[in-house]
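User: I'm putting together notes for a lab meeting next week and I want to include a structural view of one of the chains we've been expressing. I don't have a solved structure, so I'd like a prediction I can at least talk through. The sequence is below, exactly as it appears in our construct file.
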Amino acid sequence: MVATTTNRGREVEIAAGRRILSGILNVPPGAAGVVAFAHGSGSGRFSPRNRFVARVLEEGGLATLLLDLLEEEEAEDRHKVFDIELLAERLQSAADYLKEASETHALRLGFFGASTGAGAALVAAARNSSAVGAVVSRGGRPDLAQTYLPAVCAPTLLIVGGNDAVVIELNERAYRQLRCPKEMVVVPGATHLFEEPGTLEEVARLARQWFVRYLTVK
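Assistant: Thanks for the context. Below is the predicted structure for the 218-residue chain, given as structure tokens.
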């Protein structure tokens, strides 16, 4: 595991089997929890949307790990992009890293998943229920974790855009299968990527509120 410090945080490399995952870890002073990001297809640790959400979480006293679940050449393979089991295993490797890192080992862990990354986050949460304190999905595909949903124990927030009809339906189905503390919020006027004015800010506000509520419990 290799780490270098930049003005964006600490760039880290995380072993995941034979692969090395790249990430950016930012730990604000006095952080009360840590959130690992699982990006969707075609995205990565430099995603402007997830970097914006990460900054808002950091302002709320939470550490963040922006992560590439696939190496660069893997991201061109559509099979791997939608291999939720593989993505969940990679996310678990990141969770293991956070439990070992000196700055984050004592912090409660949350997952923030976008698109297909939300499915991976829910699978990883179901597999490691004792270690994951909360999950937030942004425009996610929780249906891709369908067989795992009843086993998720971590409080889960599903955020979808009001103009993203197909994803709303998929989230409603997944919501009914979840047995954990849960909430689903539809952001009015938002499409899948939350590019409309004020919509991503609302996502970040909701996510911060959820993670602060469940990751900072003593």
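A couple of points you could mention at the meeting. The first helix runs from residue 48 to 59. The domain at 2-215 is CATH 3.40.50.1820 (Rossmann fold).

User: Perfect, that's what I needed.
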